[in-house]
Amino acid sequence: MRKPRQRKLKKAIAILGEGYTEWYYFDYIRTSRHYSFSLKPELPGPSDYTNIFRKARLLLRKSYDLVFCVLDVDTIARDNKQSEAFKKACTSLPKKIIPITSYPCIEMWFLLHFLEHSPGREYQSYDEIVPKLRNYLANYQKTQEYFKKHTPFERMEQHGGIERAISNAENILKAKQKDLSLFQRSYSEIGKILQQLEKCKDCSFKDDCLGCAERMMTVFSVTNKKGKK
After folding, report:
1. Are strands 12-16 and 38-42 parallel, antiparallel or unpaired?
2. Quick one: average pLDDT of 156-165?
3. Which is it for the CA torsion 192, 128, 71, 217, positive or negative?
């Protein structure tokens, strides 16, 4: 006799990043916020977006309610062919898989915590942005050793850092919508994840997460809203 399917006790949200930087950051978010829902940062293995999207589909089939794919797009921005392929891959994603991008990299999000105004310039790579970030996080390195020994994320959130980062990120994205092409100004959408997690915090979870997924517009998911559930 087939066993009755067990009812899931709480919502589950997965965050897939490209590497250890994303994992350490979202593990910090998970442990510092004490969410009532399951929040699982995951390492996808190979960090290319095709593998991340493949892993995201697998997690969705394993009953995760939302899956965020956190991606740096510096390499994609340098190549029109790659950029078009990436856009096409995003449009084929199920609605509950949401691509969250930063240009050039996640360190743009970290930097926005310290700036009084949103920067209007373009950083094309990690190597360009990290000297600026080290003005605030001395000796910052994208290594496990650094994240284990230091507490950069606590430092980022001091003195209203998180509110400042979200405001800066929103201003940049609004400006991009008006008159800038995709990669003429550095940006990060990671604040959208944090804002959504706060909404989830107050949610009864009686309804499916599809409505929230459809309302969450990101740079590469705008055309994805007509995609599959």
Report:
1. parallel
2. 96
3. positive
Q: How many other CB atoms are found less than 10 A from the CB of residue 186? A: 25
CB atoms inside a 10 Å sphere around CB 2:
4
Our CA angle for 30, 33, 35, nearest 5°, is 75
Q: How many residues does the chain have?
A: 229
Query: What secondary structure does DSSP assign to 7-61, as a single string?
Result: PP-S-EEEEE-SSHHHHHHHHHHHHHHT-SSEEEEE--SS-SHHHHHHHHHHHHH
The pLDDT confidence band at residue 77, using thresholds 50, 70 and 90, is confident
pLDDT for the residue 225: 53
pLDDT of 146 strictly over 70: yes
Residue 40 has a CB neighbour count (10 Å cut-off) of 15
Q: Which two tokens stand for residue 188?
A: 């990060």
**With helix as H, strand as E and coil as C, how does 66-91 read?**
EEEEEEECHHHHCCHHHHHHHHHHHH
Rounded alpha-carbon distances, angstroms, from residue 11 to 25, 160, 203, 205: 21, 29, 10, 7
User: Exposed/middle/buried for 158, CB within 10 Å: 0-12, 13-18, 19+?
Assistant: exposed
What does R_g of the chain's alpha carbons equal in angstroms?
Answer: 18
Give CA angle at 121 (117, 127), nearest 5°. Answer: 110
pLDDT band at 222 (very low <50, low <70, confident <90, very high): low
Asked if 99 and 69 touch (Cβ cutoff 8 Å), the reply is: yes
Q: What's the CA gap between 157 and 80, in Å, rounded?
A: 36
**pTM of the model as a whole:** 0.89
